[in-house]
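ok, trying the design again with the full structure, not the truncated one.
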C-alpha cells in the first residue's frame, strides 16, 4: 500500500510538470523590444490636447464643441527650425547677394563711396592699385587668393523702396533681382529665388581623422 501511494505521488508530480500547450506550436518567447533612435532625430512624446472652444458656451449654441485629440509620439529632425527662422535665413541670403551685386556693379563702373550713389556699396578694400593702404591681412588675402577675398560693406542699409533708389545703377541691380514682368503673377513682381544661392563649406572631421596617417 505504501509503495502504491509513492508511485501515485510521483506520477502526479510528473504530470503536473508537463507542458500545457496540448501539442500546439507556441513559439519562442522573445525579449522586450526597444526602438532604436534614428540618427539626427529627436523623439517628440505623444500627448493629448483639447480642440475647440475654450470658453464656456453660455448661450448653449454648441457651435464649437470641444473634444480631446490624442497625438502619437513621433520623431523629427534635430535641426528642425520654425518658418520665421527659415524666413530670416532667406532674407539674410537675399541681402548678401544684393550687396555682392551692388559691389560688383560699383567696381565695374569705378564708383567709390562718399557720393551718395551705388559707390557707397563698393567693396571696403576696393582700391586694388593702392594695396599699401590696406591692412597686412587684407593685402595678403588679395595677393594670395585674388579679389574673391574683398569684403562687403554692411554698414550701409539696403534700399528696397523704388522711389528711394540712389541712382540708375542701383535700380538696374535691384531690377535684376526680381522676376521679369512676363513671369510675374497678376502684375506683381516678386523676388527671383533662383538667384538666392549661398555658399558654404563643410568638413567631415571623423572622415578626416580616419584618413590621417598616424605613423
Amino acid at each position: 500500500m505504501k509503495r502504491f501511494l509513492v508511485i501515485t505521488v510521483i506520477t502526479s508530480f510528473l504530470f503536473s510538470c508537463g507542458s500545457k500547450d496540448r501539442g500546439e506550436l507556441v513559439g519562442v518567447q522573445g525579449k522586450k523590444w526597444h526602438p532604436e533612435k534614428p540618427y539626427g532625430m529627436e523623439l517628440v512624446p505623444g500627448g493629448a490636447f483639447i480642440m475647440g472652444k475654450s470658453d464656456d458656451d453660455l448661450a448653449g449654441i454648441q457651435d464649437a464643441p470641444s473634444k480631446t485629440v490624442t497625438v502619437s509620439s513621433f520623431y523629427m529632425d534635430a535641426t528642425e527650425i520654425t518658418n520665421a527662422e527659415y524666413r530670416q535665413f532667406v532674407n539674410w541670403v537675399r541681402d548678401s547677394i544684393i550687396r555682392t551685386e551692388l559691389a560688383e556693379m560699383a567696381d565695374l563702373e569705378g564708383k567709390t563711396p562718399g557720393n551718395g550713389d551705388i559707390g557707397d556699396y563698393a567693396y571696403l578694400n576696393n582700391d586694388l592699385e593702392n594695396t599699401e593702404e590696406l591692412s597686412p591681412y587684407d593685402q595678403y588675402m588679395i595677393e594670395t587668393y585674388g579679389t574673391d577675398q574683398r569684403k562687403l560693406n554692411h554698414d550701409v542699409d539696403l534700399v528696397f523702396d523704388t522711389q528711394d533708389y540712389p541712382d540708375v545703377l542701383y535700380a538696374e541691380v535691384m531690377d535684376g533681382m526680381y522676376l521679369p514682368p512676363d513671369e510675374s503673377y497678376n502684375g506683381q513682381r516678386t523676388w527671383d529665388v533662383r538667384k538666392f544661392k549661398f555658399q558654404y563649406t563643410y568638413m567631415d572631421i571623423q572622415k578626416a581623422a580616419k584618413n590621417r596617417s598616424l605613423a
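Keeping the full-length input from now on. The chain has five helices and four strands.
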